[in-house]
């Protein structure tokens, strides 16, 4: 029987950079009295409250008398901000107060206190995760405050009022690349154009600096709507709102724009509400997916905002775009694995899943039957099981609140829709991968293999599809094979996915980014809600366990010259004639000999090298405790104490250089440390002209003939090796090792003429001694005649 999964679709969304978790509130509700109407004019804008309400002194005193010195949300509705790296931690913000929970609102909570003299009106909040835990940033009365260790600290470096905070949070590990993402925080003021200052932090919000003195290119185009950060490149993207003229039937429009180069990333889309209500959500676990919404607009982008699509209702065709005319969104929430739910003004509840497109279905249960009430600050949210919950604050005493929860089972709601034919029973028995939730490192030339198991029933209408962010830098090969038959006769399929890097035409290889591989069931809509997409994160960067070691074929320990016990308490001297303390290889630069305490625990046993033998070390590439290969890349050596009594066998000319090669002295004189980031091969035609072909060529490679030649010197060297080739690895591969050089003749103390005189004297002395010895032994000289007659 023909199966629907025969065709495998591979999609690669071309992105500037991937996106991590939620930056803006994932749960938001509008109050019942904020009804959105056209006021008799289809282009009239509703009267919505401003984004940042700053009351006067009398109003402030009234509020303090009524509410005390507690924080409150500045807008007339409630939100929940979740910690994207901890689904147990969240912040509830509403008119009743601002609450922080670490137990999913199962605990009794007291509202957060006002930091000092402020009115306590919060406009934005975000979690910041570090290796040691989490803290959060609030924007209170236009100023940013850091909540750390239970205390308030004003954010340093912020000189202008702001309204919002946005941040990237990487939850994969405590790896340095991941932490660099989480450390990026942006503060900005919404609704302004010129003279705008955006503040940026790279240290988890501890200190901010102005990102730019201003954004003059916005002034002619519009105002700042919302800002989010794109992935590992830390590219800041802004939703720019262009003000229209509703009297002429021209609504406001927005587009996404990169701050770094002011380039427009997307088309322009009409807005139905003021800029105060635009929200951009990056759902947890859905890297590269963006939701843009206002009360009367809902758009979805599967590729970081490059293209925005409307949200359709299942079974209603492409003409049913939500929210429909006359309706508006009163509460919207997203959850892990790309689920979305929202409530419209008519109390109808919609549920859907985000994939290549966003489709939702209307549940039969009305929110009115569940007692949903905005007056009480009730919110809609997903729990850890994927079901919906209604969360309502309830005051226990003047300083303590609890939160009531009412669950709504998603699977039960979908089952009730089977009879209508809009949702079918799940036709997939199994769908899982061996990589879900994991992350992998990919170095230059590396690859990642993933496996998915897929067991459908006959005539299944869904088939697996692979999507990959950073499609301009990565590609994938997908193969689907039959891997057996189940006990009930269903075929078991195995999908093999191979991810590797693309090499750009210029030869440049992009590094340091995090990509997402997502495998989902194509065109399933809201069916199979329990079968979640299988996701893996690929960190294209240096694997933290990758390193190099020197090959130790012959050492002083194996040859019995210096034992391990001796090396643990070993010192040696370096003559002042053979080292330069400033590493510039200058003769007589040192004023005294140098005494070195040998570090056996770092250097182990020294390599043993004969002084008159051209030499080059060999290095091994390791990943953790697994040998990978012998290093076949350009590298350089540097004696760490400045010893310079060795030479290189090749010159620039003999190495066939076409440009002037780099060397240690020129690099150090320019204030640089020679490494893979500044290495320029002398084989590059675009390099500096070859002005000194007789210059020593100091770059070594296992496949070259260049070697090191030691002088007539016995002693210890400690070298630091650095791999230079930027196309070999993203890692800064370095190691230190020691070399003991032996076999050199003792150093001459007297001048050569004196040695010659002594040699001649010894020679004639030996002749005289031999003469007297022979004479004493009765030696007699025979003539030839005497010898012949005998």
Question: What does the secondary structure layout of this molecule look like, with pairings?
Answer:
Elements: E1 9-12, E2 27-29, H1 57-67, E3 72-73, E4 78-83, E5 86-94, E6 97-101, E7 121-130, E8 133-140, E9 143-148, E10 151-154, E11 164-167, H2 176-182, E12 185-188, E13 199-201, E14 209-210, H3 216-219, E15 223-230, E16 235-242, E17 253-258, E18 269-270, E19 279-281, E20 290-294, E21 297-301, E22 309-313, E23 321-322, E24 329-335, E25 339-344, E26 349-354, E27 358-362, E28 379-382, E29 388-397, E30 400-408, H4 410-416, E31 428-433, E32 438-442, E33 447-456, E34 463-468, E35 474-485, E36 491-501, E37 513-522, E38 534-540, E39 546-550, H5 564-567, E40 571-574, E41 594-597, H6 600-603, E42 607-610, E43 619-623, E44 626-630, E45 635-639, E46 646-648, H7 664-669, E47 708-710, E48 715-723, E49 734-742, H8 752-776, H9 784-789
Parallel strand pairs: 1-34, 3-7, 22-27, 32-38, 42-49
Antiparallel strand pairs: 2-4, 2-24, 4-5, 5-6, 7-8, 8-9, 9-10, 11-12, 12-13, 13-14, 15-16, 16-17, 17-18, 19-20, 20-21, 21-22, 22-23, 24-25, 25-26, 26-27, 28-29, 29-30, 31-33, 33-36, 34-37, 35-36, 37-38, 39-43, 40-41, 43-44, 45-48, 46-47, 48-49
């Amino acid at each position: 029987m023909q199966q629907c999964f025969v065709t495998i679709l591979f999609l690669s969304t071309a992105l500037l950079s991937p996106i991590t978790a939620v930056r803006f509130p994932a749960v938001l509700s509008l109050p019942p009295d904020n009804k959105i109407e056209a006021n008799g004019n289809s282009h009239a804008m509703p009267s919505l409250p401003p984004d940042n309400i700053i009351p006067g002194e009398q109003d402030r005193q009234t509020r303090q008398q009524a509410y005390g010195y507690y924080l409150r949300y500045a807008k007339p509705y409630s939100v929940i901000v979740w910690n994207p790296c901890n689904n147990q931690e969240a912040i509830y913000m509403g008119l009743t107060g601002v609450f922080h929970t670490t137990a999913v609102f199962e605990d009794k909570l007291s509202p957060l206190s006002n930091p000092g003299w402020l009115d306590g009106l919060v406009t934005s909040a975000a979690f910041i995760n570090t290796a040691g835990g989490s803290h959060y940033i609030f924007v209170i009365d236009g100023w940013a405050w850091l909540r750390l260790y239970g205390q308030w600290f004003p954010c340093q470096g912020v000189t202008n009022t702001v309204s919002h905070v946005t941040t990237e949070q990487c939850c994969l590990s405590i790896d340095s690349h991941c932490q660099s993402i989480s450390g990026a925080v942006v503060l900005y003021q919404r609704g302004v154009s010129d003279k705008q200052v955006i503040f940026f932090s790279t240290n988890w919000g501890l200190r901010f600096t102005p990102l730019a003195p201003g954004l003059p290119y916005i002034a002619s185009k519009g105002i700042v709507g919302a800002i989010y950060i794109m992935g590992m490149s830390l590219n800041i993207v802004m939703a720019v709102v262009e003000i229209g003229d509703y009297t002429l039937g021209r609504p406001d429009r927005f587009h996404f724009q990169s701050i770094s180069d002011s380039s427009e990333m997307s088309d322009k889309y009409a807005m139905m509400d003021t800029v105060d209500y635009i929200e951009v959500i990056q759902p947890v676990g859905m890297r590269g997916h963006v939701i843009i919404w206002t009360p009367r607009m809902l758009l979805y982008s599967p590729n970081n905002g490059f293209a925005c699509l409307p949200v359709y209702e299942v079974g209603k065709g492409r003409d049913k775009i939500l929210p429909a005319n006359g309706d508006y969104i009163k509460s919207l929430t997203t959850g892990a694995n790309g689920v979305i739910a929202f409530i419209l003004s008519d109390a109808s509840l919609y549920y859907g899943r985000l994939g290549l497109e966003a489709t939702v279905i209307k549940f039969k249960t009305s929110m009115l039957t569940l007692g949903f009430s905005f007056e009480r600050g009730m919110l809609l949210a997903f729990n850890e099981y994927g079901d919906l919950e209604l969360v309502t604050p309830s005051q226990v005493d003047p300083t303590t609140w609890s939160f009531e929860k009412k669950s709504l089972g998603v699977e039960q709601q979908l089952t009730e829709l089977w009879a209508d034919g809009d949702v079918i029973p799940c036709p997939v028995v199994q769908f899982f991968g061996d990589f879900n939730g994991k992350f992998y490192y990919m170095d230059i030339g590396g690859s990642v293999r993933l496996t998915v198991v897929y067991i459908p029933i006959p005539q299944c209408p869904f088939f697996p599809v692979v999507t990959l962010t950073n499609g301009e830098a990565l590609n994938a090969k997908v193969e689907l094979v039959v891997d057996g038959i189940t006990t009930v006769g269903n075929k078991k399929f195995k999908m093999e996915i191979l991810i590797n890097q693309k090499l750009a035409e210029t030869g440049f290889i992009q590094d340091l980014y995090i990509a997402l591989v997502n495998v989902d069931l194509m065109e399933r809509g809201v069916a199979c809600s329990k079968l979640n997409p299988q996701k893996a994160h690929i960190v294209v960067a240096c694997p933290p366990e990758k390193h190099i070691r020197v090959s130790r074929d012959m050492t002083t320990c194996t040859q019995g010259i210096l034992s391990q016990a001796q090396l643990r308490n070993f010192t040696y001297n370096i003559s002042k004639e053979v080292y330069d303390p400033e590493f510039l290889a200058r003769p007589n630069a040192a004023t005294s000999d140098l005494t070195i305490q040998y570090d056996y625990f770092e250097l182990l046993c020294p390599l043993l090298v004969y002084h008159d033998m051209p030499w080059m070390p060999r290095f091994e590439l390791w990943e953790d405790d697994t040998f990978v290969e012998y290093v076949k890349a350009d590298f350089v050596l540097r004696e760490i104490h400045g010893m310079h009594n060795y030479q290189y066998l090749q010159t620039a000319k003999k190495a066939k250089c076409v440009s002037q090669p780099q060397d240690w002295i020129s690099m150090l004189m320019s204030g640089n440390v020679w490494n893979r980031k500044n290495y320029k091969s002398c084989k590059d035609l675009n390099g500096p002209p070859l002005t000194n072909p007789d210059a020593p060529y100091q770059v070594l490679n296992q496949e070259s003939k260049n070697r090191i030649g030691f002088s007539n010197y016995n002693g210890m060297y400690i070298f630091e090796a650095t791999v230079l080739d930027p196309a070999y690895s993203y890692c800064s591969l370095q190691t230190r090792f020691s070399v003991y050089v032996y076999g050199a003749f003792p150093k001459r103390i007297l001048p050569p003429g004196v040695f010659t005189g002594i040699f001649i004297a010894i020679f004639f002395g030996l002749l005289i001694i031999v003469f007297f010895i022979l004479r004493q032994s009765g030696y007699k000289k025979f003539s030839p005649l005497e010898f012949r007659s005998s």
